[in-house]
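Why should sequence recovery work at all? Because a backbone constrains its sequence more than one might expect. Tight turns favour small or flexible residues, buried strands favour hydrophobic ones, and helices have their own preferences. The token representation captures these environments compactly. In the example below, the structure is given first.
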């Protein structure tokens, strides 16, 4: 009887547990002078984007790509366009898998067309028969501090995005580089022909137009492939200016400004500044979950696993939109050019199309400012002055004699007062800088390595707001010199030592001194029982088939009677501690899976009855 109680309590616990800126960062393009004082001209871009948007901003000259000015960090750091998983795989809140090659295809292809430009190596799953399997293995996944998955199908849907958060640590496959052997063997992704239900295995190439994720913490003696430790270095090797151009995802409906010194070596003549913007799930009559649905397995074939089909939502709404404004370098007078209409759209989700990545007419693209503000061409929203994108060029004399901003002083960072959020949020306090031209923005960077110079500063992550949206940190710039500014920021991980640095930038692109402080985040505290503690820690993903079986056992068998409900409640007291114990140790996770498998088998037998 004693054994039965102990075993029953442990089993029940285990299965229940499872059941469970206003402006972007400023930095000169590669090769620019060291400070704005030496720059011949200042380039400004003004616009107001919709929320949750991915952006690429670049400059062209006579149709030739010149330089990337900004790239949002989901693409520049998080690997959105180059990570494991099929390109048509569903999406969701911080969805971990599936390459979004249609995120910013115009920028991606034009950058790759630049003389001397290189492509990145493609990243694929470590050990899958194809890229259509999202959760087929647990022996290649390690903790992921950013990407996560909901524990229920309903909360992974598009209409539930406002209600979800990363409640439980997720374990993801960080992937590996594809090899010539993979290509020769025909390694592929399932791919459904747009506008049809025709599915095929599409061979993958060695190269990608997008960088891999750079936020993976290298580990030794773990389940990550050795390539995971090389992802960040490879990204910078291909595009050395990547740190300098990375910006946080802009806050929606907030006016943005880019202040950029124009390199002295740019020859006089006509130029064009372009902004490409994309928001996934921007549905209309032509682009929606019916016309571009979740791909399905053809009869008798298995190209996708069940969770790749059933969880999340189809992300392929209206494609990206491009806005461009022309300006000239070498003029003595100030220039101001406003654009109210989009240049065009990427227009297609068919990566095999010859026109993929080209700017196409706005056919089938629609706006709905009332029911769907920020859709279609309204992703850069219409300003009161009548423009969506405005480019201003200031001649050199406009900043004659300008001095860079002073340092922020004093500077301090403290743990957040909410102990349930202190593992991921903190409070920043500093004295406002002084400047003769006015403060354009405060650049706040966060890093796990010391910030001692410009390179290490720019290599840090742009600070984000203290919420789950991971949008840019909006630091007020109106404070007088020395006046204290206090603001909460987020995006942190528990039990981590951070360096937090701040510097001011003025409207002449002058850079103030870098000031840095350090912070240790505490371990995570839980106020309530998270539904999938032990099993999620054991399998590393709420998508694992075993977790689904255990969850159904809880809901259909245990919750239907008083004894079962008591067992579920009893588990709530021990589940968090058990999960915390096994989560950091691969051996304990494997042991927990072994212990749970008989219960999973029992759950399967009960389902068959």
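From this structural description, the recovered sequence reads:
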């Amino acid at each position: 009887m004693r054994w039965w109680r102990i075993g029953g309590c442990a089993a029940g616990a285990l299965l229940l547990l499872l059941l469970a800126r206003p402006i972007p960062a400023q930095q000169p393009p590669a090769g620019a002078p060291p400070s704005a004082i030496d720059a011949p001209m200042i380039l400004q871009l003004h616009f107001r984007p919709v929320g949750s948007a991915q952006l690429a901003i670049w400059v062209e000259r006579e149709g030739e790509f010149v330089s990337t000015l900004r790239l949002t960090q989901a693409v520049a750091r998080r690997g959105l366009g180059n990570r494991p998983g099929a390109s048509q795989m569903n999406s969701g809140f911080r969805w971990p898998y599936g390459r979004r090659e249609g995120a910013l295809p115009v920028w991606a292809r034009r950058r790759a067309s630049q003389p001397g430009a290189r492509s990145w190596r493609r990243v694929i799953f470590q050990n899958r028969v194809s890229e259509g399997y999202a959760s087929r293995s647990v022996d290649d996944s390690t903790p992921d501090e950013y990407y996560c998955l909901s524990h229920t199908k309903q909360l992974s849907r598009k209409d539930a995005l406002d209600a979800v958060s990363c409640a439980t640590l997720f374990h993801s496959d960080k992937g590996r580089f594809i090899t010539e052997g993979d290509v020769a063997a025909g390694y592929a992704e399932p791919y459904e022909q747009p506008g049809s239900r025709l599915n095929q295995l599409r061979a993958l190439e060695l190269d990608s137009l997008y960088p891999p994720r750079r936020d993976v913490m290298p580990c030794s003696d773990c389940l990550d492939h050795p390539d995971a430790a090389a992802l960040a270095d490879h990204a910078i090797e291909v595009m050395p200016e990547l740190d300098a151009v990375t910006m946080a995802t802009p806050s929606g409906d907030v006016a943005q400004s880019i202040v950029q010194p124009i390199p002295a070596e740019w020859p006089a003549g006509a130029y064009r500044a372009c902004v490409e913007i994309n928001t996934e799930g921007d549905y209309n009559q032509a682009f929606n979950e019916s016309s571009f649905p979740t791909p399905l397995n053809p009869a008798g074939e298995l190209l996708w696993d069940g969770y790749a089909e059933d969880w999340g939502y189809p992300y392929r709404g209206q494609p990206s939109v491009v806005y461009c404004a022309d300006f000239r370098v070498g003029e003595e007078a100030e220039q101001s050019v406003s654009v109210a209409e989009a240049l065009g759209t990427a227009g297609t989700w068919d990566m095999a199309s010859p026109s993929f990545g080209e700017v196409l007419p706005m056919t089938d693209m629609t706006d709905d400012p009332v029911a769907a503000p920020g859709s279609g061409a309204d992703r850069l929203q219409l300003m009161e002055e009548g423009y969506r994108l405005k480019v201003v060029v200031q001649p050199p004399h406009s900043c004659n004699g300008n001095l860079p901003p002073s340092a922020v002083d004093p500077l301090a960072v403290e743990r957040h007062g909410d102990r349930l959020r202190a593992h991921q949020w903190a409070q920043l306090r500093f004295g406002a800088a002084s400047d003769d031209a006015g403060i354009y923005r405060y650049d706040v960077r966060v890093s796990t390595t010391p910030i001692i110079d410009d390179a290490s500063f720019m290599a840090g992550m742009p600070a984000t707001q203290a919420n789950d949206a991971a949008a840019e940190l909006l630091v007020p710039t109106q404070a007088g010199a020395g006046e204290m500014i206090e603001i909460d920021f987020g995006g942190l991980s528990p039990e981590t030592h951070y360096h937090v640095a701040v510097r001011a930038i003025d409207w002449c692109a002058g850079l103030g001194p870098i000031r840095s402080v350090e912070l240790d985040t505490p371990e995570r505290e839980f106020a309530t029982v998270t539904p999938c503690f032990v099993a999620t820690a054991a399998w590393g993903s709420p998508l694992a088939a075993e977790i689904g079986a255990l969850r159904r056992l809880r809901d259909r068998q245990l919750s239907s009677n008083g004894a079962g409900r008591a067992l579920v409640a009893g588990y709530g007291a021990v589940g968090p501690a058990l999960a915390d114990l096994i989560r950091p140790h691969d051996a304990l996770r494997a042991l927990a899976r072994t212990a749970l498998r008989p219960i999973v088998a029992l759950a399967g037998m009960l389902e068959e009855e």
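A few observations help interpret the result. Residues 2-19+531-608 form one domain.
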